[in-house]
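#struct-queue
[09:14] JT: dropping the first one here, sequence first, then the structure tokens:
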Amino acid sequence: MNHDPSASFVLSSRGGEPPPLLERVDIEGRIDGLLFTSTVRQTWRHRGERPLEAIYSFPLSPQALLLEFASVRGDERLEGTIALRAQAERTYELALSRGDAPMLLEVGVNGLHTASLGNLLPGETLVTEVRFVQLVRFENGRLRLQVPTTIAPRYGQPGATGPAHHQLPVSAWSAEYPLSVGLTIAGALASARLECPTHPHRVTRGPGQARFELEAGARLDRDVVVLLHPAEPRPALLVTAADPIAEGARQVALAAFELPRRPSNRPLSLKLLIDCSDSMAGDSMDSARAALHGIADRLGPQDEVALMRFGEFPEVGLMPALCSPGTLHALRAEIDATTASLGGTDMQRGLHHTLAMRHRHEQADVLVITDGQVWTTGAISESARKSGQRIFAIGVGSAPAEGLLRELTSASGGACEFTTPGEDLQAASLRMIERMRDTPWHDLRVEWSHAPDWQPPVEATIFGGDTLVAMAVFDRPVPTLCAALRLVGSGQPIVPAASEAVDSEVLARLVADRRWPTQEPPEAAATSLRYRLLNTHTHSVLVHGREDRDRMKSEAAELVRVPQMLAAGWGGTGQVGSSGSAGVADIPLMVFRSVPPEPDEAVLRQWRSATRALSADAEERNALALTLPEGVWRDTFLRPLGEPLPEPLRDLMTGLAALGMAERQAWQLIAWWLMPDVPLSCKPVFLDMPDAAVAAKAEHLVQQAIAAFSEWTIANGRTQRLRRQVRS
């Protein structure tokens, strides 16, 4: 195990913090036919004394399409405009400098969204609205709707393909946000049996619809999961509409096919890869062990099995062996001995070692059981793609990283499921084993009655019981459009029935959202603007104008990052039940491991360029240098900038040295604590000794020094300039 103390930090809750900006979140949704549409309303109330610029990162489903971003302030409701990123950022910054109240919505990776709320005045209340739509997909005869609410802390560094620095979510013990959820289920699904394993709830039924609502007391600390079991099998469905946005008379179509199973009894070569990092402690690890025992019960003598654990490093539990009674006995013993005790979440290394294990059968499958709380995704997915082995995954916990696991499994031809505490883990493991044994469908072909002008490629591999979605664009109206799914190796094609009418604009935007990634950048940007798509090319921006008497200069606004609620049960912080997580308030601090990277030349050049743009004042340059990200060390960057350092920081270095802390580690600690847009409740404190009393003294020293340093920056007129420079 890696005992490097610089690889750990603690999240702690401190008293005396200002009231939260985010007051509550209300979600109202509707499931109708193939679509789930929903509006997330975030209520903000500024009870502080200084104007603020607030940044809040929040999750939506990675499969969701943003339909509208709006803001309500008093009697004024404004809808956001989709603009190219650079243009939207200029609009936001210009309004910020004028003293107006702008808002900017950005999309990150895997469903991460970031809202910037500029120039919030003391006493001000406003509501932001995010309306989105996503396709409904049935799996094995049931619909599992997962509404994400919070982002659990993640391991590692985001890297070049991850979110920007200001988009990184932070978590706080002290954060607590009430949540209400109401869903209307219409049409054929109104009679379905409803379950919600995550929250106490109530269901009322009326003519042609059912109403689902959470009981009072819900919080934004776990995903909301709703399971629908239709009274009758779902037929294949087809919806069509005229495209009201495109130039000319175009028609769009969407078809959904639930594929039949193709059972087989082929032997498995199964490699079990279990996440044993700190974040899996408690309910997540209990869920993992339950799933593993369910899998062990379904292995026979013709199968081969291996078990690997991973955290900061991989650990072999069982080398590949045929499933004799002795092997299965050893497997169950290893399952019982599996705990969340391996530190960080180096999934890439664990997967690399697992894929390298030799196996007897021609086809090997890897089943990963994890909460998926890592930032690095591209390299992991690429490893899976090149391996030739299928990756399956069961995501566990109250807020699993859905986007990462779907990306990982689809890249290799596998599949994934998600289970929250309270769901049937045995049933999930049974469905996974059935998928591995079954023969998946390949070379599927959708035949339309008229030749489409464009259609996306059909999924290369899909398992029986899962839903295939096909889309198409036609350059003219087709009144009698129909479709058929040809199953290679099967008899009759699947012909969908016509579904209920849908909003034509929503359907057109859904199809366009599948189309723009296939286009060249200029054309993709044009499509994004025409269909108002929030993606890597665009932002959504709006500006509430202010009267002259209410205007303020942007330098006066304090930049703050609004923290997430810590995901219920994360890292063993209490047991997760449908009524809430117990014991969180009784835990003062928790260690979460992160690997500090080596200094990166590109980062150094970027920061050196930024400091050259400042005045020649040595103290100002040093103050900016101390806000460097983790890993850009004093001996590679601060020394060339010159001395002297501000007196509060010199005193702090002396105090930390007296506690036995190495200089390099002390500078890393200081750099993190000086990051201006990270709330105090989420500041990491680096420890190089396990003594809790010494750690507490170090934390006290840091808090005192940072307070003194803040006074120094204010007295010298540097605070807002430093924060704006870091954010840019």
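[09:21] JT: and here's the second one, same format:
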Amino acid sequence: MMLVQDLLSRTAAARPGHTAIIAGRRQATFGEVAAAARGFAAALQAAGLRRGERVILFLDSSVDMVAAMFGTAAAGGVFVPVYPGTRRGRLAYLLRDSGAAVLVAAAGLRGAALGALAETPQVRAVFWSGEPPPGAAGDGRHHRRLAEAFASRDRPGDPGLIDQDLATIIYTSGSTGEPKGVMLTHHNVCNTAWAISTYLGNRPDDVVICVLPLSFDYGLYQVLTGARVGFTVVLERSFAFPRRILERMAAHRVTGLPGVPTVFATLLQHAPFAGLDLSALRYLTNTAAALPPAHIHALRRAFPGAKLFSMYGLTECTRVSWLDPERLDDKIASVGKAMPNSEAYVVDEQGRRLPPGVVGELVVRGANVMRGYWRKPEATARRLRDGEIAGEKVLHTGDLFRIDDEGFLYFVGRRDDVFKCRGEKVAPKEVELVLCEMDEIAEAAVLGVPDRIDGTAVKAVVVPRPGVELSESAVRRHCRARLESHLVPRIIEIRAALPRSDNGKVRKALLAAADSPRNPADA
């Protein structure tokens, strides 16, 4: 049996002096992070935390965040990472929905934290990364400095966990409604950390830079796999300044760069590589959405010595698939095959497996599949359905895929994104890939919008490369030469940037407005 806290404690016992986390000017070894996690676990239990109770972690990507995460697990709690830019109303919702007993908050986020606490009386204890706000103790809660808890040499009691207990709840973005909490057990987390680090070939001398928030499962698993394998993770709070990230990569001899399509598009669009020694980089990984082939080619030119792993995943199972870099040349449009100890296949609307080449819904089975959505049995029942083996539940992703004769998976689109134009189905991803083949275009997003003639019209929002002149007519000519008529965008907007969520995903709902800026000068 392996528990989340064991990922850290076993590595700390074997390599206590090796650097675990670099965050800004602060560094911490595995031994130091493990000691802080033990102190925090003891402090949580002293504050009355019981097995299975939830602890909201409202912190920046930092050593404190990592130690608090492992400490919560060691105390028997369920850690709930929350994006540090979260506003008061959403934070209050997450505290209420999770039924959190404890809030861990950064002093710099006290405005949102105090406002949310005023609406959530069930929270019994608060740990602050700095001094507790003046007068905070008057609310009857247990308030304490996080640093004091970390420094404690008390040892936590055994909470009696097994690997079927919940380890974490990760809230989805809630783009189609209120946020849903994805429940992952210790078994889920440890299996996935093993699987990812296995196919990536991670080793203790790796140095992985993480520009993704730890509230996003992709960012979180950089820390989890780092703890399992014993490699160093460089935490960055954002990707706002690509040149600075590249400088950090050169300074720390980074070997691994995880990203999402928008991160890589920004890197290729804005980051100058001249004068930087990035020769230590041996791999890049992409997930959340498939990379356009044009961006794959550009990344391989920019980092000729690094392997590129195209992957696919969603929060409900963390990761679905990975493409062996050795097959990138002949399977460039694919996101590979199911990761170790899992299976992925395509079904029709009746749940029957489909043959190669036929588009259907992607289904995932394995130890990576979530327990369900927190306190949402109906939503859980829609996603987790009976599998082919009696008593088994499999994940119906809602994503449209096809599979080829060799078993490689190809993303077609999200079922909710697909729409009809002139009676024909439009998968936005198909149009986006064609748009990204145009040298002048850095990024593209396609969606359906109401239209008096077609009912629903194809709308494309494109971002030009820096210093490039781009016209709507040129974009339309490019599409007409490569797409069927119903796929050619009727509406084309040129923008300086695409709106993104906290996780770097494009927020298409914000692109539907008719009065949005039509060129970079207006943005």
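[09:30] RK: nice, looked through the second one.
[09:31] RK: The first strand starts at residue 19 and ends at 23.
[09:31] JT: good to know. The chain has 14 helices and 27 strands.
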